[in-house]
Amino acid sequence: MKVSEIRIIHYRAPLREAFTTSFGTMKVRDTVLIMVRDDEGYTGWGEAPVDNGPWYNPETINTVIHVIKDYIAPALKGKEIRHPCVLRGILSRIRGHNMAKAGVEFAIWDMYAKRHGEPLYRMIGGVKRKVEAGLSIGVIGDIDKLLRSVALGLDKGYRRIKIKIKPGWDILPVKTIRREYGDIPLQVDANAAYTLHDHRVFEELDKYGLLMIEQPLHYDDLYMHSILQKTIKTPICLDESIKNIYDAMAGHSLGSYKVINIKPARVGGVCETLAIHWYASQHGIPVWIGGLLETGIGRAFQVAVATLSNVKYPNDISESNRFYIEDVIETPWRLGKDGTYIVPEKPGIGVEVREDVIIRHAEKVLSISLG
Ligand SMILES: [Mg+2]
């Protein structure tokens, strides 16, 4: 197949409620949606779920649009794409910019699977028909509100609770949740908000039987995490630090982590996700799939990769209506009572994209013809 058109959409939708992490508070969510069309008229959708500033990773809405328009699109012009993973070669001159690459690669995967009349999950070797979901709760800063959110999450059937922590909001919320809800599957995510000087916080958290502590130290670090991991028994899960398979290999050799949170957009797409997933599988390291407040389109890719066999923990895949008042897909993601999503069996990502909703919230639409 050859890509004949790439459409880049800056999508901006209000959130149902503000979401706070150690980076800051978000009330409106910006993201970049990508549509590709091939020479036979098949289409595919993808998403580059960037923040509106370089907070989670160095990319922003504008860098994603710029890199796709000025570098990725020209590189694809006239190229025969036999399989989505050939993109890694075609785009290898472009260093970094994983989310821009992922957004386009996702769309090409969707189109490729539709051409084959197969659901995406099956085309990538997924084996599960249902995927487990956990709930991620932002830094609320108010114990009563936190307990209400936990209760609501458990009630909805989410299979584990994760709370975001930062200095000053760490031990007390964990201690309180354990006191109120006992031995529920619980983990914390620091989004790189600590240093080794805070080792006492981790020694204390180590007493609460957490499933894991996610990204406690610097977002680029592997070495300091290996030191911390030696001093605590709670598994360290790396998120931001694992940007590609090389980070996964280096971190494993150093003993920096025991679990990986793979966000397909962070690592540059489905193909890099597969590489990390199978590397981890060979080394007995469990993984799970993380999220970045994706719209229903990005979520479809999370669901597809969460069907892989070495995904051993519940994934950060929340329901469409958790963040968005209105989702961009026809049947919004809704959790079953057992805390799982049923994996769509329709070709491609298996969800119908609502272009009417996309147009209504589109800040900017850029259409590039490669024909
Ligand atoms: Mg995280």
Q: How would you portray this structure in words?
A:
The structure is a single chain. The chain folds into 2 domains: about 130 residues, Enolase-like, N-terminal domain (Enolase-like, domain 1), CATH 3.30.390; about 220 residues, Alpha-Beta Barrel (TIM Barrel), CATH 3.20.20. The chain is built from 13 helices and 13 strands. A 7-stranded parallel sheet has the order 5-6-7-8-9-10-11. Helix 1 packs across helix 3 and helix 5 packs across helix 6. The protein starts with a strand and ends with a strand. The model has no long low-confidence stretch (mean pLDDT about 95). The site of magnesium ion has 7 residues, from loops.
Order of helices and strands: EEEHHHHEEHEHEHEHEHEHEHHEHE
- CATH fold name of the largest domain, please? TIM Barrel
* The number of domains: 2
The molecules bound to the chains, other than polymers, are: magnesium ion
CATH class of the largest domain: Alpha Beta
